[in-house]
């Protein structure tokens, strides 16, 4: 299988034994042959190999292009997202929180005498929150400490905006809900959940044309007599990586509120409102 975007190509396969390694090498050879036949020169130094596995001893094979052994790495950046070999995205979250914190420091130093809340919110949305949310469906954090680190950046910014608006800097331990309610800014965690539901809705409504993703969504056939009939069937996961994988994550999100709405009939706004009501009821 392969993924192609602009001039970037990724070839991947499930590796269960050495025969799978041979087949993957054959795919590399076929791509190299096609490139040579069409006068396309590959930059071998930029070609990398990465193995995604939770095993202690995954199968590693030396793959080659034009007789050169490809470098193996444990992490790489693809379209702005840093992937690690364990798919934990911890390094990516560390990088974006550090980048957003630096940008927050820059804005604080240059906000000057801004007291208009809408202006400060626009700057925050444009330069900080955009970093904390880019492609979040892929790397949505699975560990509490990562969630806390992301929210901490937003909390620092909200405390400063609160100070600029009300003339009093919030003390340590200040109720975070007061900050979010008074400034009208949602928690990042809630926004990530809304993005997930929106993405699921668009896949099922064909607003996102991706037969591959659609094939990964297991629709559950309703059975009479059950107390709860979930809309989607999500396989049991023994690890956080699988349970928080994008498809499982967004299907689980909808199953929590599926008794209040119908994703095949209701508008997106209704589904998001049901999710918000469900979150309020759980809090």
Automatic annotation (TrEMBL):
<protein>
    <recommendedName>
        <fullName>Reverse transcriptase domain-containing protein</fullName>
    </recommendedName>
</protein>
